[in-house]
User: Fold this.
Amino acid sequence: MMAAPMAAPGSDKAPIIAWHLVMCLYGFWLPNDPRGSWSKHVGSKALYEAGGPASGGTYHRSVAARPHDHALRVAVKTVLKFPPVVLSGIQARAVGRGFAQAQQEAKYHIYACAILPNHVHIVLRCPRRSVGLTVGHLKAQATRRLHEEGISPGPPGPPGGDRSAVWGEGKWCGYLNGLELPHAIRYVEANPVKAGLPRQHWSFVEPYP
Assistant:
């Protein structure tokens, strides 16, 4: 998936104090995206045949603007089992309410959040739990809220189930020291504006420092 312009762990001697998480909605950034991804394999035969092997690598800066075969990227998405998930404004606010629930449960210190139609940025202080558990927690509460409100944008879940595939697999995490953290906060706050959307204000976001 894409990466924001953040430093990698151990990039300097300053201690890591926060994370910049990027979570994609289903179908947004595929494992064999021609611009690159963090994925090491393509689990779908149809995706592999349409777009080739995973384009995994280690990226510490954004690859979103990297020159690539745009037509191929669009064509590969047509073989997805379901259409890509795109959040409406109402659905984005429900995702925000899910994040607020997760924040209350785990006492996350969230310094910035941008919920865009096809991906999400969050900057938060390093919690006690792992990156994987934190991302899973945030995704689960957001998905639950979408279902409780009856506005899930994802494809149907398994027979007898009550969940649908709203999120893409995986995540990207930038590790931030005290010098990088303010830059990451500004970057995330500016994301909606860059996308032509209003600036976002979420109740669960606290000021830093």
In short: The chain has two domains: 16-26+84-194, 29-83.
